[in-house]
Structures are given as C-alpha cells and as structure tokens.
Amino acid sequence: MTPTRSGSIHLFKFRGIAVYVHWSWFFVAFYSILTRVNHYTSPLWSALEYLALFFIVLLHEFGHALACRQVGGQADQIILWPLGGVAYVDPPDRPGAVLWSIAAGPLVNVVLLPVTWFLYAWLPAIGGAQLNPNLTSFTYALFMINLGLLLFNLLPIYPLDGGQILRSLLWYFLGPSRSLLAVAAIGFIGGLGLLGFAGWIRSPWIGLMALFLLVTCWRSFRDARLFRQMELLPRRPEWQCSACQRAPLEGQYWLCHTCLHVCDVFAGQGVCPRCNSFLSLVTCPECREARSLLLWRSHRPKVKVVSPVIDG
Q: Count of alpha carbons within 13 Å of 113, Cβ hemisphere only?
C-alpha cells in the first residue's frame, strides 16, 4: 500500500537521495487547501501552510535517510504522498543501526520545535500580529504541524516511528522475529483505538491512516511468523554472510540458473549436483544480498596439530 516510483514525479536529488511526489498528492493538496481558506484572508496562505507541512515531512524523511547511511545502510529514495512521506531505508540488520535510522526522523521534529515556537512568539514582540494576522496564523500552524507530526509519529503503532523504535528496543531482548511479532500485535490494538478515535471526532483522514496502519500491522505479523519459522530451521554455522553475518540455512533453497535445479549450494561448495555448473552468485535469505560464494566468510573449525613432547 505504500507508494512507489511508478506514478510518481521526480522533484530533485540531494546527496544521492532522489525525492518524488506521488500523483495523488496534488488532488489531496487541492482539497486540503480549499478546506483551509477560511483560516486566512487569502488562499495563498493556505497553500503555503500545506507546502510547509510537507517541507517538515521531507526534513523528517531526510533524517531517516541520512542516519541510515551513517550506520552503513542504503537509502536513496523518498516519496511524498497524501498520507505523509516514505523514506526507503535499508539499515544493517542490527538493532542499534535500525534504532538510529528510525529515531533520527523524530529528532528532526524535536530540533524544529524551538525554531517554530520562536517564530510564533517573536511576531507579537515586534508588532507583527497587528501588521499581518495571516503571518501570525501561519507561524502558529507551523508550530502545531511540527508538534502534531512529532506526537503522532511517536505512537507505538507499527510501522510509525514509535512502533519501529519500540521494535528496535525489544530486538535486544527478543530477537528480530519475536520483537516484530510483539510490536505488530501492539500496533494492531493501537490501530483499532486510532480507528475508534477517528470515528469519534469524525476525521476521515485519521480513519484512512488507521486503516493503513491496521493492514500494515497484519502483514507485519504474518511476516514475523515466517521469520520466526525461518529462525528455527537448521543452519550451517561454518558459513556466514559477509553482509548480515547470519549463517545460511541448511537445505535445498538455492536455484541453479543453468538447469533450474534447486540445491544446497553450500553442501556442494557452490557446484550444482545436477549440471556441475558453478553458482557465481549466492543470495542470502536474510538480507537478500546476492554475493559470490567467495565472499561468504567460512568459519570452519581450525585443525589442531598436537606435537608430542619426546622425553629422552
């Protein structure tokens, strides 16, 4: 359900991170601007307020992307859509790396809090509230938008930042799959509560967001169960993926691209038992990185050579 580059318009690229806007954003922007015209004397201020909202969202997403790169992950794409922004980040498969990649987004909003509050509080001090009431309303909206985004994103509902931060913390104690199971269950309860709140205040946007979160939590719960089953499968501890440091599964899980035979690539040292061709690339089922078998680190136990002491 998250947006993709298909149907999105490329805006710009900053530090190798491409920014796109989904086509549906423009229709929702037009509707949202029309519903805010009563708050200002000119629709131009309504448009500026909506653009400011997504400017803050964009800064938030850049916080995720740059932090992910800082810990050695990959992040090269941000897409804006009516429900906010999506930074496609792929941090290393470690709880600390994931935690920093996710927490950096809300930290951007924390930094912006005193800035937006100063702008709002500074105008009355110089008499700007009397000279331009629209500007005063705009700076107040700017502060409330940033505060609202911060509080909403910190809700412990997966995949909001709060839910992912909670999952990263639980990862230290429960592991990757069980921590995802826990936050998916918690997020599903929170999503139901958010859906009820949306019905109480009659907010279609919050209701739509709640439905999106519920669907995502359900999918994450199913994925976590599969990950848990995968964790319990036998592995080959003598080998290790150079990217995620996980031992490969023991069994026939790899496809030979020459004869399409499914084999155990590590049992045959990279050679297909049917056609005797060498599998040049081996994909890790954990991080999905395709690497040469030579890059998989072998951790075979060393042979101990005991030299007897000859007394004599």
A: 11
Is the predicted pLDDT of residue 34 greater than 60, yes or no? yes
Short-list 93, 49, 57, 94, CA closest to 78: 57
Which pLDDT value is given to residue 103? 93
Rounded to two decimals, what is the model's pTM?
0.73
Side-chain half-sphere exposure of 215, counting CA atoms within 13 A: 7
162 has pLDDT over 50: yes
Q: CA-to-CA distance for 114 and 51, rounded, in angstroms?
A: 20
Pairwise CA distance, residues 200 & 270, whole Å: 60
Query: For residue 68, what are its two tokens?
Result: 């992910």
Give the DSSP per-residue string, 171-208.
HHHH-HHHHHHHHHHHHHHHHHHHHHHHHHHT-HHHHH
| Beta strand 84-90 pairing with 74-81 | antiparallel
Angstrom distance (rounded) from CA 240 to CA 209:
40
The three-state secondary structure class of 240 is strand
Alpha carbon 172 to its chain's center: 18
Query: Across residues 6-13, what is the average pLDDT?
Result: 84
- pLDDT one-digit tens code per residue, 266-281: 877 778 888 888 877 7
The Cα–Cα gap between 260 and 252 comes to 12
CB atoms within 10 A of CB 284: 20
Distance CA 100, CA 63 (A): 10
Q: CA-CA distance, 124 to 136, in Å (whole number)?
A: 8
Residue 311, SS3? coil
Residue in 94, 96, 100, 101 with CA at minimum distance from that of residue 243: 94
Question: Is the pLDDT assigned to residue 262 strictly greater than 80?
Answer: yes
Pair 66, 125: CB distance under 8 Å: no
Domain borders along the chain are 1-154, 156-232, 236-298
Q: Give residue 191's pLDDT.
A: 87
| Residue with tokens 């104690």, as numbered in its chain | 173
